[in-house]
Amino acid sequence: MGETSTGPDEGSVRRFVEHLAAALADFGFPPMSARVLVTMMVSDEETLSAADFGERLGASPGAISTAVRHLMHIGILVREPMAGSRSHRYRLTDDTWYEGSVSKAGYFKMIADLADEGVGVLGGAETQPGARMAEMRDFFRFFQSELTEIYKRWKDVKAGGADRPSPSPDA
Fold first, then answer.
1. Does the domain made of 10-92 have the CATH classification 1.20.1270.50?
2. CB 30 within 8 A of CB 70
3. Given this model, what pLDDT does residue 1 score?
């Protein structure tokens, strides 16, 4: 008689973690941060400790520490104290993708403001370098504005006020 599966195959899950983490790294995410993020996402547990991440990923405490600091900085992970211990556990934020993306919105404004400063430094938008800076400024202002609208629509979708997007036909 065959065995019944009570959950996903551990080896398949590990390969998936590495595959998705590599894709996130190709997109510009720090590789260890990507591995920690995906490990947290595939965990049945709500919180994991740094030791849990290290054990599951075969990574050093220093690498894990750097990764969780990065994920906390961008608003994806939250650190919680462990009762009766100096250690901490980490969990995903309540609205992980929204929070992580919103944290980047401030960078777009900063880049737009710096590009605007560059327009003046480079002799105005009438000069070739100034025109490039003006286009950069305008793009980042546009992008930030559009991102704000996307966030609003996403909140509406999550709240059930709008239909969820259909899966990609390539999926």
1. no
2. yes
3. 47
